[in-house]
Amino acid sequence: MENSRSKNAVLNILFGYIAQIGILALSLLGRRIFLMYLSVDYLGINGLYSNILTVLSLAGLGLNSAVVYSLYKPVAEDNKPLIASLVRYFRKVYTIIAIVIFALGLALIPFLKFIINSDLTQSDLVAYYVLFLLNTVSTYFVAHKVTLLFAYQEQRIEKMVSLGSAFVLQILHIIVLLIWKNYYVYIITTVFITIINCIILGIISDKVHPEIKKYKNTVPFDKKPIIQRIQSTFIYKIGAVAINSTDNILISIIVNTAAVGLYSNYFIIVNAIQGFIATITTSLISGIGNLSAQGNKKRQHDLFFMMLLFYHFVAVTGGVGFFLLFNDLISIWLGKQYLFGQITVFAIALSFYLTNAVSPIWMFREANGLFNEVKYLLLITALFNIILSIILGRMWGTFGILLATTISRIITQVWYEPRILFRNVFGHTAKEYWQKQTKYFLLSCVVFVTSYCAIAYMPHSFAFLVLKAALIVGISTLVFWVFNRNSEEYETVASLIKLRRKHI
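Request: output the structure for the sequence above.
Response:
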């Protein structure tokens, strides 16, 4: 089981990285061509509608985590009749959610004029929105099969299909822009490829797991804990969506929709990097879930602190890199007319740093099924976020809205969730956690100051951009290695590498 879990994690990460590199390269090219033929207002609509539909899809977001967690134990026990029964049950739930989201989406149409701050015609804006809505709803009809792949740690299948779909989509988008220069055709192409992607995923999943169709008889199972888990996760995800997926909506209302377009240029890079990280995260969560199902708390404890070191290293490397290099990258990629001020870039970089520095907390909490314990936490965070975003957004525009998200998380979620995790999973206080985080934060400050001094006077060009990025990665690696090379976390990493080499 240990060898299988490690092998699946490595394969998921490997294929996930291949997918992310391909998607990133195509996204950068596609964005440049997009801005050559369509205005930044259309780019703003892209980001705004994506956020609106993410808010509408929060029911599905709550379900995904609960579904995967519910499958961990039967997958670990190889109980195929029960797995088949659960998947059929979740298919019905996902279908209901798709219908509800579509109905709510249509009901929101009369209110779009209060959200969008653009010169585009209202009829076009509504048509674009309906197409975005169809694109979102279509993914729910194969969601139960995708979550089964995740429970089996076979995310690489979904990643590779997504890579193929993204590759074809970007090529078609470029063709559409070059020939028709039409946003309608652009979105219709997106919907078409999304549907094809879902069909392919469904077919492959059926071939990989034929037992879902083989076992026709329903095995009785207790739905009460599953429903409770879904409800708790749903409440938690309402807050998560209100925090992470409302920035574009607030920027559109308080600033303008074009500002959403500018922010989306930065976000596409952040999202791509988070995609690389998420490849590791989703692979590890499945493994942690299996450890939880086996009751191996000691192993979880060791993995947690190893991952805390790794994710904080990623957080500071990316955060410092974004703050010091983002505007250089945007200037070279799209042009200086698409730049934010450095203070806004700081808010984006700070959000990335904080998100990744505390990632192991929510990963272990979710893998251990602690949904009910934190179900109201992010609602409180979301309330702070909305209030602060309105106040700071009116004072400082986009910078204020982005900063509000980070502040609201620090004063609620960041300090409270560790207490829940350590009390319920590890059985002791979070003192050791805060000692480690304090140490890593101080090291992060060293990395920032050293990196800033190292690259402050370098010219702005692509060659020097690569050199600056290499220096930041090198400085971050050296600082964290020097001050952690004798730690238990570093020894855990080294032992895992040796173990993996032995099995290769």
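Residues 257-294 form the longest helix (38 residues).
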